[in-house]
């Protein structure tokens, strides 16, 4: 995932906001989605075809925002907020969420056999840049902060691009073990496994010294932290941690997640651990599972950077964290071929997931596969052009009938020094056959919108 490559929040404010946003939920109880999306355009236009204009106001989940020069959320993206697919009973994302929660509830209990993991699945996706980036030690110049990668609501607020955005506030509130599930938003390419909105589950578990060394026969002399600050960071551990402590934590983390993979996919699942980098964990790993003969990355995890715990007031503990992608797990588990299907209202899709017990095995049977139509679009790009601007526009104008967009050719004109891009757009409806006329109309609208909004010049 993208992130492989401090300020202090005032406590009362955090608590007040969280109290409004957090709901302790039991997994049986499902809420119906509530959204109000009111978009006031400063000039005429269809919802879905343009950016929210600077200076104009718009609403997300009942809050009013005034657009500024950072605003790049589109009405199409805003229209997805609050759908909370992960909380809709019988939705495949809800079923897989329930299965993961069941695993944590069953396997991690306290003395009185109550589950230790608290579950949050209704936290507002509009977060601050502090939550999404600063609290996670993401450097100022990290590419994920760029407007081309992230949906900004205003300069200081954005649609979370990862559920890790909630780590700090939940630790500040005193939670040591929690799961946070929610919709996350990223500007990205368009294909069968990428959609600008997807769902993640964050897991965090903090341990005290006695908890870490609980299983050790003779723990005398074992500590969580080095007693000098002369020790350097290595590929195995952070400077302040002892190797004993992080090795035990690494074992616990990998064991927790590989057992989860077996719980979800059965004993035969093939998986592998890959070393990687995140600004908020060290060491860090990704778990990949074999999907259609390819290794598919389904989660990132690692030992939490101690500075995060320090900033959140948990300096005597160490912890692990993971973030997993629900769509990817569900695509593998239920054999769902395309990520757009999760947004389908078609009963042919949804009815296949109407089971009372989320542990019931389900294999999705495509109702039918409709033919693709392909059309190319070539144009000269303006100076400040970024590819993700084009992908967003295609999604906004073309909607979910766009299956894939690929940049097939780039050409620099030797004389004019102008660059041209040629994109191949594949159209396919999930529920019917598209006529050539329908495709041509949409393709024309996309071209026109790119001329008007991105100032491209068709070739
Ligand atoms: N937030 C990371 C991502 O979205 C995943 C992650 C979560 C990695 C927690 C490590 C720890 O890519």
Number of beta-strand segments: 15
* Subunit arrangement of the protein: single chain
Give the radius of gyration. 23 Å
Strand order in the sheet with the most strands: 3-6-7-11-10-9-8
Distance N to C terminus? 35 Å
Bound molecules: phenylalanine
| pLDDT < 50 runs, ≥5 residues | 4-49
- The helical percent reads 25-40%
- The whole-number mean of residue pLDDT values reads 88
Write the H/E string, N to C. Answer: HEEHHEEHEHEEHHEEEHEHHEHEEHE
The assigned structural class equals alpha+beta
Coarse morphology: globular
Largest sheet: 7 strands, mixed
Beta-strand content estimate: 15-25%
Q: Count the helices. How many?
A: 12
Can you describe this structure in just a few lines?
This protein is of the alpha+beta class and 459 residues long. It has helices spanning 11-21, 75-78, 92-107, 129-132, 167-172, 209-212, 243-265, 306-311, 326-334, 347-350, 387-398, 436-454, and strands at 57-60, 63-66, 118-120, 126-128, 157-159, 177-185, 197-207, 271-278, 281-291, 294-304, 318-325, 373-380, 402-412, 419-427, 457-458.
Can you put this structure into words, describing what you see?
The strands form 4 sheets. The protein has a 7-stranded mixed beta sheet. The protein has a 4-stranded antiparallel beta sheet with strand order 13-14-12-15. With 459 residues, the chain is α+β, with helices and mostly antiparallel strands. A hairpin with a 2-residue loop joins strand 1 and strand 2 (63-66). It has helices spanning 11-21, 75-78, 92-107, 129-132, 167-172, 209-212, 243-265, 306-311, 326-334, 347-350, 387-398, 436-454, and strands at 57-60, 63-66, 118-120, 126-128, 157-159, 177-185, 197-207, 271-278, 281-291, 294-304, 318-325, 373-380, 402-412, 419-427, 457-458. It is built from 12 helices and 15 strands. The protein is 26% helix and 23% strand. Residues 368-459 form the FDX-ACB domain. GO terms for molecular function: ATP binding; phenylalanine-tRNA ligase activity; tRNA binding. One of its GO terms (cellular component) is mitochondrial matrix. Keywords: Acetylation, Aminoacyl-tRNA synthetase, ATP-binding, Ligase, Mitochondrion, Nucleotide-binding, Protein biosynthesis, Transit peptide. InterPro entries: aa-tRNA-synth_II, aa-tRNA-synth_II/BPL/LPL, Fdx_antiC-bd, Fdx_antiC-bd_sf, Phe-tRNA-synth_IIc_mito, Phenylalanyl-tRNA_Synthase.
